[in-house]
Amino acid sequence: MPDEHVKKQLHHLGDSHLDCCISAQRCILPTHFNACGPCSSWVKELKVWWSLANHDQFALQHADSSNFYITEKNRNEIKNGAILRLTTSPAQNAQQLHERIQSSSMDAKLEALKDLANYSRDVTFAQEFINLDGISLLTQMVESGTERYQKLQKIMKPCFGDMLSFTLTAFVELMDHGIVSWDTFSVAFIKKIASYVNKFASDISILQRSLAILESMVLNSHDLYQKVAQEITIGQLIPHLQGTDQEIQTYTIAVINALFLKAPDDKRQEMANILAQKQLRSIILTHVIRAQRAINNEMAHQLYVLQVLTFNLLEDRMMTKMDPQDQAQRDIIFELRRIAFDAESEPNNSSGSIEKRKSMYTRDYKKLGFINHVNPAMDFTQTPPGMLALDNMLYFAKHHQDAYIRIVLENSSREDKHECPFGRSSIELTKMLCEILKVGELPSETCNDFHPMFFTHDRSFEEFFCICIQLLNKTWKEMRATSEDFNKVMQVVKEQIMRALTTKPSSLDQFKSKLQNLSYTEILKIRQSERMNQEDFQSRPILELKEKIQPEILELIKQQRLNRLVEGTCFRKLNSRRRQDKFWYCRLSPNHKVLHYGDLEESPQGEVPHDSLQDKLPVADIKAVVTGKDCPHMKEKGALKQNKEVLELAFSILYDSSGQLNFIAPDKHEYCVWTDGLNALLGKDMLSDLTRNDLDTLLSMEIKLRLLDLENIQIPDAPPPIPKEPSNYDFVYDCN
């Protein structure tokens, strides 16, 4: 007779039968056991086999650390060799835990809450517990139920802290399933959670979960945003950034980002001013970016989000046209002229000098590089960049006055065709910088591309502009450009900026020095080198040679892709609360026959061994690989579906009748590597942009290597003519 404890385990071997492990003994189930039937029939047959009563009170569960129940929805995810456990049903388990967490015994209550925090990760259990009004019970415990224990805190502080930690963990896990709306929670609950941010600063687990709950409230409910914004202040969050725990710092910045993102337009600038007063930027720079530790991916993502939200404050000015009749706006243009050409040169304001003054203004506006010399305000009616361009010009003129005057006077002394128009250049440059930094776009779900240098100055965008406008003037001179070359100069400047940004300079000064090394001459060298590497040889012999060696190069690329799949990649599972998602790892077996994958607690350092990955998928079972909007998880997740960047990184493996393995690649490169590798495994063509680029590069290199001996020899377009046949063949020697 099997042990009644949860040691009853089933070992799924395939489609024909199941093994079960009872304590240390092993017995094979009857061959007639139907593993293809519904899950309820499995349990029913096991009840008969083990003589158990009330089979509806039992269910099958994964025996690994996940403890997830087997249902009709997830049964296809059971892999050959997976160990299952016969245990109490989700409904029975939920009922028992619902009663246990209300126990009067502190020890029993603590153990029950620990179990609840573990089981709540499973959506099947979560649904049953929520049906018992479990969420309300947990919120009541947080609001008032824990207070009766606070008198015992001095003598039972560790116990109280653990109890609260498990309660909040269970709450977070249950809410993550999206079954219950966030709008249902009371102000008392919000106040209690907000109080934990201050009360339990030394208790990492409670602080983490409290911050996570606040972030989710803000992101998922407009009403809760307003209530949370009243209860939590930036001043309360700042001290958590000054600690040494990077995870707490990440959660804290995530809450700030959530408040920033959901703030009404009229409140967002006000919040930015508060962040500036509290010196958030310098605190992040000192305690996060320049701390003596590496920045993990999640922190990088939150810094990227903060960077995007900060720059998005410029959108209003970027989309505001100048009103030519607005005297205050016109005064800014007068100020630009005054700083450049000195107020002492003003004529007397007598009635006889009005025409002379207008003529002088027109001349000066031309020297300033405006397109409309008579009324420069008309230059700022295009959006983008709108008034943002004028703001940048005024900032440059006031804060870098010497450089501003030098640029204006230098160009006003040149010939008309060689002058670099400061006004026109500033407008186009501002528009370009907004495009580069994607001002006005919402932050991506997956991107972590933050730039440390933007955290080194309170007016980082304006300083960025000041450096780039000086670069533009320098490049204009190096190119000896005329007004007809304006667009060419802008293209070169954009390339210089983009190349400097890819090096991730740590400060604006470092960015400036990077640009110094990227002169126009250097850009020409880089372009020439790239052009030589990608040169398209059009002669017939070269094309024939390309065609001959292309299969060899494609095979080389295929092997590289498969080798990368063997090394494996760490992926992230995304849901409504991105930071709480788990990592998972997938890699191909060395013999290219099986994909090994499994969940991880954190992002790994280096490769993950095959034996530590619990699940397997034979390559032979793969039916298809789909990408983008065709992926099942992109159809299911409405929020993610709206995000173009996530859509471009999504792909899925379809197997069996309805099985699927869903991926969201960390970046475009990994997306190309995996889709190429999977297509190669299925015998299909590799069609990614990365493959095309690699093929062009490797083909060009291989052809150049093969043509080394023909250097300086002209290769004819056509093969040499075949000579006429000889009049006789007397010269042929007969070896016989």
UniProtKB/TrEMBL annotation:
Gene Ontology cellular component list: cytoplasm; glutamatergic synapse; guanyl-nucleotide exchange factor complex; plasma membrane; postsynapse
GO biological processes: actin filament organization; apoptotic process; cell motility; phagocytosis, engulfment; Rac protein signal transduction
Subcellular location field: Cytoplasm; Membrane
Keyword Flavoprotein assigned: no
Domain ELMO: 328-501
Keywords recorded for this protein, A-Z: Apoptosis, Cytoplasm, Membrane, Phagocytosis, Phosphoprotein, SH3-binding
Domain of life assignment: Eukaryota
MF-aspect GO terms: guanyl-nucleotide exchange factor activity; SH3 domain binding
Gene3D superfamilies: 6.10.250.810, Leucine-rich Repeat Variant, Pleckstrin-homology domain (PH domain)/Phosphotyrosine-binding domain (PTB), SH3 Domains
Presence of the UniProt keyword Endoplasmic reticulum in the record: no
Role this protein plays: Involved in cytoskeletal rearrangements required for phagocytosis of apoptotic cells and cell motility. Acts in association with DOCK1 and CRK. Was initially proposed to be required in complex with DOCK1 to activate Rac Rho small GTPases. May enhance the guanine nucleotide exchange factor (GEF) activity of DOCK1.
PANTHER family per the UniProt record, alphabetical: ENGULFMENT AND CELL MOTILITY, ENGULFMENT AND CELL MOTILITY PROTEIN 1
Protein name: Engulfment and cell motility 1
Source organism of this protein record: Strigops habroptila (Kakapo)
Gene this protein is translated from: ELMO1
